[in-house]
């Protein structure tokens, strides 16, 4: 048994790695594929959760960031910049500091989960709140890095990011021994669905697997440009991680859907919150609201017959629930503390 070496080492021969790269790693990847019996029962499928919240900074972004920051450092860049709804900024901040580089993040003011902000603060990033949404932040990040070329752009418009993120598809196939029938994931800026499709396609092309899954991309109903077919000007959803109206990897997402015989689907905030509580409450896996969109999507797809009984189904749950305690505790009634008294405990448990 050898310790997991991080994804650049683990998949070195399958990644576009630059000459002389010295990996900047926090030993990301190698996340568990957890069987989900309750989701299996609800969908009639054999369901698994790919738990990406167990990456070093608590989201799948670390897969892209180990590559992007390694690349930026190898190019001699001293600083990296990203736009973010929170997870990219947390990841960029951690990897940049690991690399001895400076990191600046552009975030939509007031719309990022508290845990993610705390991460960026602790890793020493320069945090710049922008009076606008994610799409505005990304445009600003692109303009800035094209004018100041000593700063590396580490959003998923950087192709090196996508390259790293495709390894999640490899890991799933390595565990299952074949690609699943269906792969569901939340879609915001659409880098991740593009990356998974690349990973599955490469494994199939090389004969490692015999098939590719149908891709189910799930967006929040208030931020569902891929479902409606047009950008959304003022995206709105409780799932702030995917509050995005103009996905940068639009074409990649459409290709994944079309080539796989897949589907885009919208989940309402209520459906997302129900799925969020379902997998935390039943499966024991606490994810952030955006991550639960994938589960909301498959529950709806089972309902209307798009899923077929017996299919193998993987849902990527993209980020850790601890990042957003505010949403978890929404609507919690205030409870009075009890006395130090077993009778009071029993009474609180309705056992008295
Ligand atoms: N789930 C989570 C938890 C995310 O943070 C994101 C994206 C997505 C899903 C969607 O992935 O953009 O590749 O389609 N978060 C970005 C960020 C936008 O800034 O952290 P995507």
Automatic annotation (TrEMBL):
Isoglutamyl lysine isopeptide (Lys-Gln) (interchain with Q-Cter in protein Pup), cross-linked positions: 143
Enzyme Commission number(s) of this protein: 4.2.3.1
Protein's pathway: Amino-acid biosynthesis; L-threonine biosynthesis; L-threonine from L-aspartate: step 5/5
Catalytic activity: O-phospho-L-homoserine + H2O = L-threonine + phosphate
The keyword Transcription regulation appears for this protein: no
CDD domains noted in UniProt: Thr-synth_1
InterPro entries: Ser/Thr_Dehydratase, Ser/Thr_deHydtase_PyrdxlP-BS, Thr_synthase-like, Thr_Synthase_bac/arc, TrpB-like_PALP, TrpB-like_PALP_sf
GO biological process: isoleucine biosynthetic process; L-serine catabolic process; L-threonine catabolic process; threonine biosynthetic process
Modification sites for N6-(pyridoxal phosphate)lysine: 61
Stored NCBIfam families: thrC (TIGR00260)
Protein name: Threonine synthase
């Amino acid at each position: 048994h050898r310790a997991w070496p991080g994804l650049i080492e683990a998949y070195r021969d399958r990644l576009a790695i630059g000459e002389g790269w010295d990996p900047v790693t926090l030993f990301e990847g190698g996340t568990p594929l957890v069987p989900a019996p309750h989701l299996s029962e609800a969908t009639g499928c054999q369901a698994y959760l790919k738990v990406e919240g167990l990456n070093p900074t608590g989201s799948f972004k670390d897969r892209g960031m180990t590559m992007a920051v390694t690349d930026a450092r190898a190019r001699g860049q001293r600083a990296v910049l990203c736009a973010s709804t929170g997870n990219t900024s947390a990841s960029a901040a951690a990897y940049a500091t690991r690399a001895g580089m400076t990191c600046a993040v552009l975030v939509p003011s007031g719309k990022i989960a508290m845990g993610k902000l705390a991460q960026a603060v602790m890793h020493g990033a320069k945090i710049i709140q922008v009076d606008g949404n994610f799409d505005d932040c990304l445009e600003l990040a692109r303009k800035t890095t094209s004018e100041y070329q000593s700063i590396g752009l580490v959003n998923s418009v950087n192709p090196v990011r996508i390259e790293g993120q495709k390894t999640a598809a490899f890991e799933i196939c390595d565990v299952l021994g074949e690609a699943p029938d269906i792969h569901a994931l939340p879609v915001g800026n659409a880098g991740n669905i593009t990356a998974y499709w690349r990973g599955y396609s490469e494994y199939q092309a090389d004969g490692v697997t015999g098939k590719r899954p149908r891709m189910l991309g799930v967006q929040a109903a208030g931020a569902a440009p891929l479902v409606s077919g047009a950008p959304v000007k003022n995206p709105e959803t409780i799932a702030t991680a995917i509050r995005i109206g103009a996905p940068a990897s639009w074409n990649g997402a459409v290709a994944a859907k079309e080539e796989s015989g897949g589907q885009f689907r919208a989940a309402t905030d209520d459906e997302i919150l129900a799925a969020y509580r379902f997998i935390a409450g039943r499966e024991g896996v606490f994810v952030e609201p955006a991550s639960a969109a994938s589960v909301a999507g498959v529950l709806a797809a089972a309902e209307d017959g798009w899923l077929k009984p017996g299919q193998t189904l993987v849902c990527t749950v993209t980020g850790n629930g601890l990042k957003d305690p505010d949403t978890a505790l929404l609507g919690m009634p205030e409870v009075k503390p009890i006395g130090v008294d077993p009778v009071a405990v029993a009474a609180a448990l309705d056992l008295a």
